[in-house]
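User: Show me sequence and structure for the first protein, then do the same for the second.

Assistant: Starting with the first protein.
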Amino acid sequence: MDTVYTDYFQKSKVFLYPLLKLRKGMTYVPIQTYICMEQSYTINDCMFICEYHVKSSDKFIAFYEKYLKSHKYFNKYIYQGKNYHLFIFDLKVHKKDFDRFVQGKYSQFSLESKLAILDFYISSGNMMQYMHSYLSPEFAHDDYAKALNVEVDIIKEVYEVCSIPNIEKETLNKKNETINCFLTNNSLYLEKL
């Protein structure tokens, strides 16, 4: 590895989306993902929120019926109009890995989760190299020390080579009463898909 990625990227999209085991390269992918929703979900809820901006065509409806609504982790769907869709998945079955994710302890993910993540990126060239280094950093410490021009002992002491998630950036904070009413189960009714 000649370079390291130092800019922030949405960690939930990289580490948690593959746990849904939706194959890479599907017609529709979320434009963004989150682990919290302001006034609705915190990191303690273990929810994973996928945000789609797409026209509600027959093709998209068939996609969400087949892959999202029927998904074993599917929890809620919210349509906000203007081609804005939220699909919320309950990742409590992966709570230990979810907690490790929040702490930035990617190398401590379960073997099952590591395999799902690596399988997702298997044909992604450079991304696969990064994922290997994030999930098994001990094999990448020398490369990171060289790329960052620091002593390898500093990298070994930190151990992880990917920064922790920025919870503020991993929080959907659209101030929308319709979403908040729906999620807190008030009397407002929205049809679920």
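Switching to the second protein now.
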Amino acid sequence: MNGIFARQVAIQRWGKLAATLTTLLVLAGCQTIGGGAIPTSELNKFTPKTADKRIMKEVNLRWEVREDVAQFCAKSIGMGHEQAYITPPVACAIWHVTTKECTIITGSQTSHVALGHEVRHCFEGHFHK
């Protein structure tokens, strides 16, 4: 009995690890040099990907406002301490394709541009790579 239980526990742990790693792969944190300012390039028009090229066509969206947005997003995307200091994230999006869920994280002070940028991540993933 103990061997079977230990195996089930190991399988559950590997499943949780795989889910965590998958989540880390689909995080987007958007940074700005000096923090807080959105680059003017964000005001440029873009052509959205066609529906068949998006990572999700329909998304259940949640918006979370946090005072520690830079620290939370930097940690969520695995950003190093120095990079997070030089280019702190102003917002981030965490998406799960399998459940069609996306959470946008912003600070209590944000802009339509930052919010829209993160919504685009929810549909198109890592679009600025």
